[in-house]
Every structure is written in C-alpha cells, then in structure tokens.
C-alpha cells in the first residue's frame, strides 16, 4: 500500500521548465564582423600597408563592438 501511494505521488509530478526572457541586444551590437583582407601573392609594399591598416581598423571596430556588447550584458544582468 505504501509503495502504491509513493508511485501514485511520483507519477502525478510534472517537471516545469522555467524560461527566462533575456532582452534582445541592440542591433548595432549584433552586426556581423567584416572579413579581413588578404594579400595577393605578389603584393607591393604600398598594397601590403593598406591591407594592414584596413585589417587593424576592422579589428579595433570589432573589439569596441565586443566591449559594448559585454557591458550591455552586464547591465542587463543587474536589472534582473
């Protein structure tokens, strides 16, 4: 009788999955990073310099975007 009662109680239990709604980040923080430029096999020094400058600029843009996204996430976790 005790076993039947325990089984009855256990079978009536349901699991509930909690869903937390995390806000969607602002669009400017979710932009796809640009592809880096590559050098052709026979690139001149001026071409190489231009590609390096472009790639460093892209890196710093993406690094700043990442920092802003991380700060946004930290602020959102403080709200909850």
Verbal overview:
The structure is a single chain. The chain is mostly helical and 80 residues long. Helix content is 57%, strand content 0%. It is built from 2 helices and no strands. The longest helix is centred in the last third of the chain and has 35 residues, at 45-79. The model has no long low-confidence stretch (mean pLDDT 85).
> Total number of β-strand segments?
0
Number of helices: 2
Shape: elongated
Beta content comes to: under 5%
Q: N-to-C terminal Cα separation, in Å?
A: 46 Å
Ranges where pLDDT stays below 50 over 5 or more residues in a row are none
Biggest pleated sheet: none
Helical residues, percent: 55-70%
Outline the secondary-structure elements.
Blueprint lengths: L1 H11 L32 H35 L1
Question: Which terms would index this structure?
Answer:
80 residues; mainly alpha; 2 helices
In short:
This protein is an all-alpha fold and 80 residues long.
């Amino acid at each position: 009788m005790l076993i039947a009662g325990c089984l009855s109680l256990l079978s009536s239990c349901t699991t509930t999955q909690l869903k937390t709604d995390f806000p969607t980040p602002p669009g400017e923080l979710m932009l796809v990073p640009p592809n880096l430029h590559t050098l052709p096999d026979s690139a001149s020094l001026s071409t190489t310099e231009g590609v390096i400058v472009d790639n460093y600029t892209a890196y710093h843009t993406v690094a700043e975007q990442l920092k802003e996204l991380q700060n946004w996430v930290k602020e959102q976790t403080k709200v909850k």
